[in-house]
Amino acid sequence: MPNVASRPLSGAQWTISAAGHEAVVVEVGGGLRSYRHDGTDYLDGYEPDELCPGGAGQVLAPWPNRIRDGQYAFGGQSLQLTLTEPTRSNALHGLVNWVRWHLIAQDDDAVTVGYDLPAQPGYPWPLRLRTRYAVGADGLCVEHEATNVGAEPCPFGYSMHPYLRLPGVAVDDLALRVPAELRVLVDGRLLPIGAAPVAGTDFDYTRPRRIGDAVLDMAFGDVLRDADGGSSVTLAAPDDAAAVHVWADREFGWWQVFTGDTLQGERHRRSVAVEPMTCPPDAFRSGKDVITLEPGDTWRGVWGIRPGG
Fold first, then answer.
1. End-to-end alpha carbon distance in the chain
2. Which of 40, 57, 90, 128 could lock onto 32 through a cystine, CB 3.0 to 4.6 A?
3. What is the b/e burial string over 180-205, where b = at least 16 CB atoms within 10 angstroms of the residue's CB?
4. How far is CA 241 from each of CA 40, 206, 307, 308, rounded to the nearest angstrom?
5. Total structural domains within the chain
6. Rounded Cα distance, 282 and 150, in Å
7. What is the pTM of this model?
């Protein structure tokens, strides 16, 4: 028998580093497995030979979050997706988080990976996906693009699923800031049933608020944008002793925050997923902020992680 070298469950590992920042990108899902600065891990990642837990660091495309019953209509077609969250009868987090992405370019401080999504039942449009990860003095920057390489318009949405933490600080003790004035109300399947203003409620994180015992798996909208059109979510330690920021450009009008309460074992409520989203949950059904890519069109969005005050 030939001697076949063992391969990590997450596939090839591409490490980039600069200015004290280091990140590891993986072949399976084209996602982010780890990110640290000066030896401090800000990403709650996973081991090379560990099955990616809870969507950690995965690319969520061509839709983020959930689609009710996996059913939607677009361009006169009624479509049915595979139910990848069968316990809730939902299609969850897109089609590319378990496929093998390929290396396009790599430097010491940056790596670009890609995946060509074929047309398939439930999503009959081919896409060319590319993601560039780079590190530098300002932290981690992730540039994503999606091109419709088919002959018909297609619906598109995007997010990523990083879990953030501050070493030695419990989730309960983190101060969370989310610059958004609206939260999505959900049913028992975590699907939207309405929306409500956050002002005057326990879900108003427009100013830093201790998470405490709040259980969050929530989408926030009506984003309060910075001068450049972007926005950022912050997790800070008590007394602002340390902080980490997740920022996103103007393409992202929604934030999902998840305190990890449904994760099992040692990952239970150990870190906070902060997900920049282009559209809310169930957007393929509601049409809310869904991007329509015409044939040949390319969507581009940028987000990143920045440690510090």
1. 56
2. 57
3. bebbbebeeebbbeeeeebeeeebeb
4. 14, 20, 12, 9
5. 1
6. 24
7. 0.96
How many percent of the chain have pLDDT more than 90?
A: 96
Average pLDDT over residues 127-145: 98
Q: Is there a domain that residue 1 lies in? A: no
Q: What are phi and psi of 308, to 5 degrees?
A: 110, 180
Asked if omega into 276 is within 30° of 0 (cis), the reply is no
Nearest Cα residue to 176 out of 206, 217, 215, 213: 206
The amino acid present at 263, given as its one-letter code, is L
Nearest residue to 11 (alpha-carbon basis) of 54, 61, 62, 46: 46
In a domain, 291, yes or no: yes
Angle 171-172-178 (CA atoms, 0-180°, nearest 5)?
75
CATH of the domain at 128: 2.70.98.10
In 10 A of CB 297, how many CB atoms?
14
Neighbouring-strand partners of residue 280: none
Supply the range of the domain harboring residue 278. Answer: 13-307
Flag whether pLDDT at 3 surpasses 70.
Answer: no
Instruction: Kindly state whether residue 2 falls inside one of the protein's structural domains.
Output: no
CB 119 within 8 A of CB 260: no
Q: Does the structure show a pLDDT above 90 at 4?
A: no
In a domain, residue 4? The reply is no
Amino acid at 266: E
Backbone angles phi, psi at 182, to 5 degrees: -140, 145
Q: Tell whether the model's pLDDT for residue 240 goes beyond 50.
A: yes
39 CB contacts (<8 Å, ≥6 apart)?
none
Cβ atoms < 10 Å from Cβ of 242: 18
Distance in angstroms (rounded) separating the CA atoms of residues 129 and 140: 19
